[in-house]
Amino acid sequence: MANLVIDIGNTVLKAAWADGVTLGKTYRYQGEMMTDFILSLAAKERPEVMAVASAVKLSGENIRRLGSVCDRLVLADDAALHDAYGLPHYLSPDRTASIIAARRLFKGKGCTVFDFGTTITIDFTDAEGKYCGGNISPGCRTRFKSLNRYAKNLPLLDTPDSYEKKGSSPVSSIESGVISGIIFEVQGYFAENPENVAVFTGGDAIYFAKRVKNPIFVVCNLVLMGLAIVADEYVKE
Length: 237
Known about the structure:
39% helix, 2 domains
């Protein structure tokens, strides 16, 4: 019997079946019927453990529905889970899962984990795997939307395929300001933590990985990997 791991983000749901800590096919869903989508996956095969990291609070009814189609439901915002992994309770479920995965993938090395999504989260661990804190700043598209909303007469733009290093128009100035600003921010963390392994994940991970010169690891399914580790350890218990 396999485990089902689910990462519910602010805009997209990602899910995968996991055999131990090995992920199988990944599914993506973007819509309002996320619980029904999860139930459709579980209908194909009953999960032994369903591990869920959700950026949105799940209702009691949805938790009940999910719990009814698996042998054990594990939520990554559970305080007991944070305690078991030595992580602070304030960490969001996706950050919790990412840190658990980074510890396993880069055992014995300090990590700086960047998650590029609606927000950019930056989390730090030392070589012993101890969590050393982290930061949150606006994500790429969030920055474009904020400029349009709060600065009069600035257009709403999306992430460009390419950009000028120095803007020569309002549009190119916005593009350069947002993209360069994120790159400078990331490079600042590299400079402050040169001994750490840099790990990129999230929707914009590949975009920014192509635009920084430092050596990095891109792990697109880092959250799902962390959930697979959690689910596997519950099975072993």
